[in-house]
Amino acid sequence: MLHHSSLSVIAATIAILAPLINVHAATVSSTVAQTFLGVGGSGAWWPHDLFNFPDNVRQNLSSLLFSESGLGLSSYRYNLGGGGVDVSNPVRAPQTPYVSPGVYNFSADPQGVYFLQQASNLGVPGITMFINSAPAPLTSNKASCAGQFVNGSGAAYATYMVDVAQHWREAGINISYISPMNEPDNSFGPIPCGQEGMLVEPNQRAEVVSSLWNELNSRGLSSAIGILADETSSTGVAPTEYPVWLPEVVDMVAHLVHHAYDFPSDANYLAYVNAAHAASNGKTTWMSEICCSLGTPAGTGRGYSQGFDPTINNALMFAGLVFQSFVIGGEAHYDFWTLVSNAIGCEPLSSSTCATTPNSNGWTDGMIYYDPDYATNGNHELYLVKHFWTYKHFGNFVKPGTQRNPVTGSDATEYTLVVSNSTTYSVIVMNPNTSTSTLSLTFPETVCGTTGFRTSASEDFATVAAATGSGSTWSLSLSATSLTTYIFDRKAC
Ligand SMILES: *[C@@H]1O[C@H](CO)[C@@H](O)[C@H](O)[C@H]1NC(C)=O
Ligand SMILES: *[C@@H]1O[C@H](CO)[C@@H](O)[C@H](O)[C@H]1NC(C)=O
Ligand SMILES: *[C@@H]1O[C@H](CO)[C@@H](O)[C@H](O)[C@H]1NC(C)=O
Ligand SMILES: *[C@@H]1O[C@H](CO)[C@@H](O)[C@H](O)[C@H]1NC(C)=O
Ligand SMILES: *[C@@H]1O[C@H](CO)[C@@H](O)[C@H](O)[C@H]1NC(C)=O
Ligand SMILES: *[C@@H]1O[C@H](CO)[C@@H](O)[C@H](O)[C@H]1NC(C)=O
C-alpha cells in the first residue's frame, strides 16, 4: 500500500512531466470535404518478371497487392503495351495485341494480362488501362519510343484502344478508365530507349482525347469508360499546357490526372490544384504516378533521385506525399508508380540486411522488391519494405466512397487524415518526430475508440490499443516516427 506522501510525490511528478508529454489538440469537422475514389498503383514493368515466378508466389503477390490482408488497393493501372520496338530493356518492352488495323493477338503480353486478371478476380473496383506509346506502326518513327503522335491518326489509335478495352470488358474485366497518353511531355528517346514513350505536343492532345471520346461514344461506352488525361510529369508544367488543349475537350475528360515528379511544396501543390480546377470548371484531380525520392519523415530533401531507402524514414516521407495530396490538395485518388521493383541495389542472397538497409545503387520505386538475378539464382522471395506497411494504412481505410472530415485547430497538421463512412471514423495520423506525442481529438459526435494499427521502425501494421477517452474527446497516442490508424465507431461505447 502506498503511503499518502508517496502519492503526493507522484502527483507532483506527473504535473512536472505533463508539459513534456507533448499534447496537441484538434477538432474533427462535421462537414465533409472530398469523397475518395481510390488508392492504387501501376502494373509496369514488373509483370514481365513476376509472371515467371512459381504460381504460389504469383498468387501471394496478387494477394499482397489486391486483398484486404495486403495493401487492399482499390485502383490498378494496367499498362497496355506498345510492342517495345527499339526499347533496349526487355522488362520495359511489353508486347501489344495490335497486329494491323482491326487485327489483334489477344494472347500477346500474357504477363500483363495475368496480373490484370488477378486484380479483377480479387475485386479491385477501379481498373485503368494506361498507355505509354501507340503501337509502333502508328507513331511518327514507327517505334515505341523517341517518336511522336501523328496528327490525323487519332481515330485509328482510338479504335485500337477501345477494341482492346472492350475485349477485356467482354472477358469480365471491368476496365473503367483509359489514359491514352502517359507522360506525353517526354518521348523517352533517343533510341535505344530505356522505356516506351510517345511525345504528344500540347496542341495534339485535344485530338487524342476527342478521338477516344468519339469512339467510346459511338459504341455506347462513354459513361462506362472515363478518359483520364493528361498525366504530365510535373505539377509545375501541367497548368501551363492546359490552355492549349483542355478547353476544346474539357467535357470529354473524366478526371484531370497528373504526376508530381517536381515534388512541389504544399503551397505549390495547392496552386496546381487551384489552377487545374480553374482550367476545367472544377474537375477532380488525381495524382496518378510518383516514386523515387529520398528525404526525411517531415519531408525535407524530397526530389527525384536514385537511392534505395527501405526504412521507416523514407516510408513516412512517402506517406507525407499522400497526406499532401489528400489533405492539402483535397484530391480524391492516389496512385504510386510501380508497386513492385527489382531496383533493390544489392544482392539479397549474399547479404541478410540487403533488403532492409539503404544503399545508393537502387531506387525507391517499390513497395515490394524482388531479386534482379532471380532467373539465374532461383531466388523467388518477395521483399516487403516499410512503404508496403505505410501504404496499407491508406489502401485499407481510404476506400472509394469514404469521405474526408477536415481537422481544424491551431495544432492541426496535414498529417492527420480523418476518413469516414456511415459507421466508422478511421484516423490515419503520422508522427514524423523522434519523440512521442499525444493527439487530443474532438469529434462532432459521440464515438467509441475500438482498435488501432501502427507502423514504425519495429512494427508492421501491428494491432495497438484503441484511443482512450469517452464521449466526443479522445486521446491518440503517437509513438516516435510512426504512422497509426485509430478506428472509432460512430456511436457510444
Ligand atoms: C500471339 O502472341 C503470342 C505471345 O507472344 C505468340 O506466342 C503467338 O505466336 C502470337 N500469335 C500470332 C498469331 O502471332
Ligand atoms: C465497372 O466499373 C464502373 C466504374 O467504376 C462501375 O460503375 C460498375 O459498377 C462496374 N461494373 C461491374 C460489373 O463491376
Ligand atoms: C498538329 O495539329 C495541331 C492542332 O491542329 C497543330 O497545332 C500542329 O501544328 C500540328 N502539328 C504538326 C506537326 O503538323
Ligand atoms: C507471401 O510473401 C510474404 C513476403 O515475402 C511472406 O512473408 C509470406 O509468408 C508469403 N505468404 C505465402 C502464403 O507464401
Ligand atoms: C466503414 O469503414 C470501416 C473501416 O474501414 C469498415 O470496416 C466498414 O465495413 C465500413 N462500413 C461501410 C458501411 O462501408
Ligand atoms: C512534430 O514537430 C513539429 C515541429 O516541432 C510540430 O509542429 C508537430 O506538431 C510535431 N508533430 C507531432 C505529431 O508531434
Automatic annotation (TrEMBL):
A GO molecular function held by the record: hydrolase activity, hydrolyzing O-glycosyl compounds
Pfam families, per database record: Glyco_hydr_30_2
Source taxon at top rank: Eukaryota
InterPro entries, alphabetized: 6GAL-like, 6GAL/EXGAL, GH, Glyco_hydro_b
SUPFAM superfamilies noted in UniProt: (Trans)glycosidases
Signal peptide, first to last residue: 1-25
Matching PANTHER family: ENDO-BETA-1,6-GALACTANASE (PTHR42767), ENDO-BETA-1,6-GALACTANASE-LIKE DOMAIN-CONTAINING PROTEIN (PTHR42767:SF1)
Protein name: Glycoside hydrolase
Source organism of this protein record: Lentinula raphanica
Organism lineage string: Eukaryota, Fungi, Dikarya, Basidiomycota, Agaricomycotina
